[in-house]
Amino acid sequence: STSTKLAYLNVTANADPPIPTLKGTWTMDSTKYSAGTFPSGTGLTNSFTTNDVQYYTSPAGKLYALLATDDPSHELMAIQIKNNGTDAYQDSVNKIYKYWTYFNTKMYGTAFNNPSGNAAVTNNAGDNNGYEGTSTKAYINDGTFATDTNSGSTTTTGCTDTGKDKHDFYNYDFNIPSGATINGIEVDAVAKVDSTTGTPKICVQISGDGGSTWTTAKSTSNLTTSSATYVLGSTADTWGKAWTSTNFSNTNFRVRINDVASNNSRDFSLDWIGAKVYSSATTTSSNDQAPFGYGAASITILDNTGYVDSGGYLYAFDLSNIDSKSSTSDMDQIGCRVLLDGYDCKPGAGSSTVEKYNQGETGSSSYSDTSSAANDCSDGGKIELNADEQLSSVKVGNNKYVYVAAGGATNPELNIVDVTTAPTGGALTSATCGRGSDTGWKVTGTLDFDPANGTQESANSVYAKSDGTRAYMSSNGGIIHNNIPDSDQFYIINTTNKNSPTFLTTWPSNVANQHYTNTAATGYYNGNASNIEMYPRRALTVQDGARAILVGQDGLPNDGVNPQEYQVLDLSSESTPAYCGGLDFNSGFNDLTSVSEADGDNFVYMVANTAQKQLKIIEGGPDNAIYDANGTFESKTFDTSSVDGSLLNRAFNRLLSDISQPTNTTVKLQTAVAPAVNNSCNGVTFSYVGPDGTSGSYFTPSGSTIAGIIPLADYTPASNYDNPGRCFRYKISLSTLDQTLTPVLSDTTWNYSQ
């Protein structure tokens, strides 16, 4: 919340102690820039707060810092740090990095705008009453319909015939920058009819001058009795007209619906009529989904997709093409927003207000649940303004999940969101998108830390184990009922079943002083009489599967009890996480991450709640580590000519490896085949692939072996993989979450033929 919104540091590793050096900052405070370097045209001021930061390296090797902010039209800001290894300074004198692009949360990834005004055409328009039945229901795609009953006065089927009912929709709130080139316009209609008799269809025209002139009509296919989405126009279709930004003002832009059938008994039903403009610099109107302006609370990144949470919803955006974006071209949203638990909370003198947007609501329109939070928005003893606190993502096989620490005014503290398959087409804009009947794009599992009535608990942090089987979470038990806290400081959650996460074990019904039989009996931690008053902030990390680190602040600073703001937990026994060390730092900490160096040293990097020296580095012990967390083994080159002297290429067929894979370890294999160069395998460049011939796949264990068919043919023509070939190698990738255990490769056998 200071003038500086981002600090980028380089830390010299494998030095004791590590040496941090400030390389640069980023700010939109113009007074910090040297003459002539302040970036113009971004639409930004410096009056926002950075809530979270992650990094992303683009496919072209450019490094970006991604900032979750409370700016309602730029909830995510991307700052370019490196351009292929070179510092990307906007101001090289003051070492201020370059603002690159942004992401603005929307209900739908297509960024369609919705109308908020409409009028029936009452002259030379069939019955002259358009959609006489609740025409406002066509504003959003929510499964409710505007209706045109017994449409039309003629049986001809021309789109603009004077005997056809017509209805205009407008006030789409487009925000097209002056001078932008208009590349295309798309109009989507969600509609149905009572009967297909009369070959009913909808014709659409658009106007850029308030309805004085109209484009040539475009027609849907014949409507059916089931609701369906009909797409008219495209990214490169200008509807036969040259457009400027002024054509899309609320005064000028209109969409006209003409209902056409050869039977005057047809009843047309229109659920939604949305419009999208494709331009060289399209921005969309602010559609902030955090009712009280808190913006995006947290970021997580999985492959080339980023995720942010805002106002009780999860949003996904595409990072793969970030290099092509600009300050006026925001990143593309994927799918629709996913409904999460949690409400934004606004403190009040008499009572707090907790709210989130309902389907289709924006701006000042939201719904509330005013019975779930204390007057100061405290939840479990911690002030909870954001609906959701932290995100952590994990990929399990081909499935992708985002774990959410649900915050303000909610019962379930853990949400697991399946983000494997983004909805498209009509499913993208349906009323159930990101909820309800969606599969692969909604919350699939939840867990409440304490389901008893009258309890207050919140989740502050979540950390997903890499195999998806555990969620490590922090909370705080500041509220006490029946002589025990409503929640504990730390939980280990079994997330093997993503639809039904559970505690490791729960209390039986005959235990005294319990809130409810479904609270944790094992797999939790609460500090002793003093450390229990440390309230974890959005700050939790798990190092090498052996230690969890909690940091936070003294939750009751005036009671004379002094908890440690840094606490380390031993996870060697999952059922009984135990305190094994800590440090007192009264200012407290706000965030952290852990680092394991190549020389075996372990460190925790923390953001301190201080005005100076905000980065703190604490050294931890090696935890009796025997093995590195990960590594690779690459075989020497095998040349078939070394066996029989033949210089011919040979077809490599199958491989078999004997391995050992203890719990919490992984081992996987790739092969490489290449032709000789200058009649020799020396100096050959090898490209490693898995069983499908791509660099992203691996041969993996089945029991105590790895076996498979070596890909045959030139799968990657841009690289150097060719089977048949003469030169062969294999590469093993090994990793461990328990540094006292390691996977083992005993031997590898392969065969080849002419």
Q: Could you describe the largest sheet, including whether it forms a barrel?
A: 6 strands, antiparallel
Beta-strand portion reads: 35-45%
Alpha-carbon distance between the termini? 68 Å
Low-confidence stretches: 281-286
Which secondary-structure class do the elements indicate? mainly beta
Helix amount: under 10%
Quaternary: single chain
Backbone CA Rg: 30 Å
Mean of residue pLDDT? 89
Instruction: Give the number of DSSP strands.
Output: 53
Describe the overall structure:
With 754 residues, the protein is mainly beta. 1% of the residues lie in helices and 40% in strands. The chain has two helices and 53 strands. Strands 3, 4, 5, 6, 7 and 8 form a six-stranded antiparallel sheet that branches. A five-stranded antiparallel sheet has the order 9-11-16-13-14, with no helix packed on it. A hairpin with a 2-residue loop joins strand 19 (305-310) and strand 20 (313-318). The longest helix has 4 residues, at 425-428.
How would you concisely characterize the structure shown here?
About 0% of the residues lie in helices and about 40% in strands. It has two helices and 53 strands.
Secondary structure layout plus pairing:
Layout: E1 6-12, E2 19-26, E3 50-57, E4 63-69, E5 76-83, E6 86-87, E7 89-91, E8 96-103, E9 117-120, E10 146-148, E11 166-170, E12 182-193, E13 201-207, E14 218-219, E15 228-233, E16 254-260, E17 268-279, E18 296-302, E19 305-310, E20 313-318, E21 333-339, E22 344-346, E23 353-356, E24 367-368, E25 378-379, E26 382-383, E27 388-396, E28 399-406, E29 414-418, H1 425-428, E30 442-447, E31 461-464, E32 470-474, E33 480-481, E34 484-485, E35 490-494, E36 502-503, E37 505-506, E38 520-522, E39 524-525, E40 534-543, E41 547-554, E42 566-570, E43 578-583, E44 589-596, E45 602-608, E46 615-620, E47 630-634, E48 638-639, H2 641-644, E49 651-660, E50 665-674, E51 705-709, E52 727-736, E53 744-753
Antiparallel strand pairs: 1-2, 3-4, 4-5, 5-6, 5-8, 7-8, 9-11, 10-17, 11-16, 12-15, 12-17, 13-14, 13-16, 18-19, 19-20, 20-21, 22-23, 23-24, 25-26, 27-28, 28-29, 29-30, 31-32, 32-35, 33-34, 35-36, 35-39, 37-38, 40-41, 41-42, 42-43, 44-45, 45-46, 47-52, 48-52, 49-51, 49-53, 50-52
